[in-house]
Amino acid sequence: MMTINTASSDAGADRRTFAIISHPDAGKTTLTEKLLYFAGAIRLAGHIRSRGEHRRTQSDWLAMERARGISVSSSVMTFEHAGLTFNLLDTPGHHDFSEDTYRTLSAVDSAIMVIDAAKGIESQTRKLFEVCRLRDIPIITFINKMDREGRDPLELLDEIESTLALDVSPITWPVGSGVNSYGSFDLLKSKLYTSSAGRGGAYDRDLALAGLHDPELDRIVPPDVVSAFRDSAELAFSVYPAFDPKSFLQGHMTPVLFGSALKDFPLPRLLEVLAEYAPPPQPQPAEPRPIRPEETRVTGFVFKVQANMDANHRDRVAFVRLCSGRFRRGMRLKHVRSGRALAVNNPIFFFARERDLAEEAYPGDIIGIPNHGTLRVGDALCEGDDVRFTGLPNFAPEVLRRIRLDDPIRGKQLKRALNDFAEEGVTQVFDLVSGNGAIIGAVGQLQLDVLSDRMQSEYGIRVGLEPAPYATARWIRSKDESAFKLFIERERHSIARDRDGEPVFLARNAWELSHTQDKWPAIEFLETRERS
Ligand code: G4P
């Protein structure tokens, strides 16, 4: 049995829990596997990737998972490096981009933002960044694909600075790009991350140099490339502020590394920056007070639930981020929502190389708790007084659809499936109080495609999605009880209840929403709702 760093302090001071955020195709998968490789967690880069319908990471194919017949397609990878334990939480991109992605970010203490050098900041990077900003999560920026022709490095930095309102501080600077890519130069340590096999080979060495003007550079790099590099690196040095770890920890400044996940440079340095500067577990926002990692009693919250991991048993795994205390297997924790005690006898740890039963876990660690639907996203587990974790929002859906069931006999299964998807955060479901059925809400079109696919493959239900007469939804509440009652009565045709029974106003268009808001000043219309 593998045990994890038992020398750890109880506050999880040696834990670094982070995510990689990016727009699809920027290189997150490639970078993930290379980081695991350079950290020594996997032997061969390249073998955890399988292309096809689903991109899966190594944890999917582990013997234990196979024996149990379950698979974790996007979850958590734990690895040890430089005396630290890293928990890398996957934020699904592409096909399953959903609230799940946002919520995962509530469970990390830092993030690496990957940007494609040819494309700059793209829409999904921006959305994910905004979520990080809500909690001022420190971000390390990796500008990827420097082995291809990309945009000018200075222009890219300006874009980050202006569109994300974030101070940038370059740590490494590219020496050429595309066919003229000669690696990445460390501005702080004066090292060139390059290839022992020359240009075109994998970048496997770091070369200590005496500054930007070291003649060794002229030996390796052709004159036009080296002089352009020196000019732009000098400019970068003079224009951008020096790296300030404090400002980084406050979420105001991002260190930037230019490189190539495919060609490996300067990935050892990226790991080093992560190890050196990424913060240990931070206090978690909660009521009645924030939870500090040093607290001795165990607390944690569910940030993700994955259902149907075992097709035969319809079990699910709740992913719990530990926030304080030292967790031991077999512990009884209070499930705050139900008030019941929960014996955590089979917690799961997510090692990059193997998945195993967790004996002990510390703040910052993630454990998987198999259950049959007891645990929901946002739920708190604790050893001491009741707490409620805040900051795990539901987002107002941007796409609303009516669901058409091809085989009406399967209404019950449909209900269960919709409930499961709502629990996983794939889609939301709103029951119209007028009794006219349910409306499905998603934060993006892709989720609806996922819903249809999974309905058929996992539940054997064929459904059609039809336009709903609504364009947007808002959670509603009011301090004025009688006004609230009157509002619900008058607007009955537009009122629904979400899965937790909370009232929602469905508007046909933006105009109707703003008109209704003006007409009912005593009612609050909310774009997010914290899970109860
Ligand atoms: P994602 O998880 O962010 O969606 O990106 P992923 O790593 O899958 O990378 C997307 C594509 O970009 C892949 O190419 C990958 O090989 C390529 N890529 C990633 N990093 C680099 C890099 O540093 N340099 C270059 N030149 N390419 C990079 P693909 O053609 O879609 O897949 P494949 O057939 O190459 O595997």
UniProtKB/TrEMBL annotation:
<keyword id="KW-0547">Nucleotide-binding</keyword>
<feature type="domain" description="Tr-type G">
    <location>
        <begin position="13"/>
        <end position="282"/>
    </location>
</feature>
<comment type="similarity">
    <text>Belongs to the TRAFAC class translation factor GTPase superfamily. Classic translation factor GTPase family. PrfC subfamily.</text>
</comment>
<dbReference type="Pfam" id="PF00009">
    <property type="entry name" value="GTP_EFTU"/>
</dbReference>
<dbReference type="Pfam" id="PF22042">
    <property type="entry name" value="EF-G_D2"/>
</dbReference>
<keyword id="KW-0342">GTP-binding</keyword>
<dbReference type="InterPro" id="IPR035647">
    <property type="entry name" value="EFG_III/V"/>
</dbReference>
<dbReference type="InterPro" id="IPR032090">
    <property type="entry name" value="RF3_C"/>
</dbReference>
<dbReference type="InterPro" id="IPR000795">
    <property type="entry name" value="T_Tr_GTP-bd_dom"/>
</dbReference>
<dbReference type="GO" id="GO:0016149">
    <property type="term" value="F:translation release factor activity, codon specific"/>
</dbReference>
<dbReference type="Pfam" id="PF16658">
    <property type="entry name" value="RF3_C"/>
</dbReference>
<feature type="binding site">
    <location>
        <begin position="90"/>
        <end position="94"/>
    </location>
    <ligand>
        <name>GTP</name>
    </ligand>
</feature>
<keyword id="KW-0648">Protein biosynthesis</keyword>
<dbReference type="GO" id="GO:0097216">
    <property type="term" value="F:guanosine tetraphosphate binding"/>
</dbReference>
<dbReference type="InterPro" id="IPR053905">
    <property type="entry name" value="EF-G-like_DII"/>
</dbReference>
<dbReference type="InterPro" id="IPR038467">
    <property type="entry name" value="RF3_dom_3_sf"/>
</dbReference>
<dbReference type="GO" id="GO:0005525">
    <property type="term" value="F:GTP binding"/>
</dbReference>
<feature type="binding site">
    <location>
        <begin position="22"/>
        <end position="29"/>
    </location>
    <ligand>
        <name>GTP</name>
    </ligand>
</feature>
<dbReference type="InterPro" id="IPR004548">
    <property type="entry name" value="PrfC"/>
</dbReference>
<dbReference type="GO" id="GO:0005829">
    <property type="term" value="C:cytosol"/>
</dbReference>
<feature type="binding site">
    <location>
        <begin position="144"/>
        <end position="147"/>
    </location>
    <ligand>
        <name>GTP</name>
    </ligand>
</feature>
<dbReference type="InterPro" id="IPR005225">
    <property type="entry name" value="Small_GTP-bd"/>
</dbReference>
<protein>
    <recommendedName>
        <fullName>Peptide chain release factor 3</fullName>
    </recommendedName>
</protein>
<dbReference type="GO" id="GO:0016150">
    <property type="term" value="F:translation release factor activity, codon nonspecific"/>
</dbReference>
<dbReference type="GO" id="GO:0003924">
    <property type="term" value="F:GTPase activity"/>
</dbReference>
<keyword id="KW-0963">Cytoplasm</keyword>
<dbReference type="InterPro" id="IPR009000">
    <property type="entry name" value="Transl_B-barrel_sf"/>
</dbReference>
<dbReference type="GO" id="GO:0006449">
    <property type="term" value="P:regulation of translational termination"/>
</dbReference>
<dbReference type="InterPro" id="IPR027417">
    <property type="entry name" value="P-loop_NTPase"/>
</dbReference>
<comment type="function">
    <text>Increases the formation of ribosomal termination complexes and stimulates activities of RF-1 and RF-2. It binds guanine nucleotides and has strong preference for UGA stop codons. It may interact directly with the ribosome. The stimulation of RF-1 and RF-2 is significantly reduced by GTP and GDP, but not by GMP.</text>
</comment>
<dbReference type="InterPro" id="IPR031157">
    <property type="entry name" value="G_TR_CS"/>
</dbReference>
